[in-house]
Design a protein that fits this description.
Shape: elongated
Strand content: 25-35%
CATH topology: Alpha-Beta Plaits
Radius of gyration: 16 Å
Order of helices and strands: EHEEH
Number of domains: 1
Helix content: 40-55%
Number of helices: 2
Distance between the termini: 64 Å
């Protein structure tokens, strides 16, 4: 008899809130990443907006690599935005 294989799915969610202009800049940096569900949330107070990013994968290593990739893109976009404003 063989061992039963358990399928595991790992999921994580990242949430960012800030001003709408910066949210749009960050969103444009990560749009097209087909491994993540990305949502721009505009129901915040005043000029506030948010990004909700959900990442799924078959194991923790895969999800961590995807999150690391997204964070690198976001950090670069944020640094460029901050240096120009």
């Amino acid at each position: 008899m063989g061992s039963a294989v358990t399928m595991v799915e790992v999921e994580t969610e990242m949430v960012w809130t800030g001003d709408m202009v910066k949210a749009e800049v960050l969103l444009s940096a990560i749009e097209g990443q087909d491994f993540a569900d990305i949502e721009l949330v505009t129901e915040c107070d005043g000029e506030q907006a948010g990004l909700r990013i959900q990442v799924n994968g078959d194991d923790l290593r895969e999800v961590r690599e995807k999150v690391d990739s997204l964070l690198a893109l976001l950090a670069s976009a944020e640094a460029e935005y901050d240096s120009n404003n």
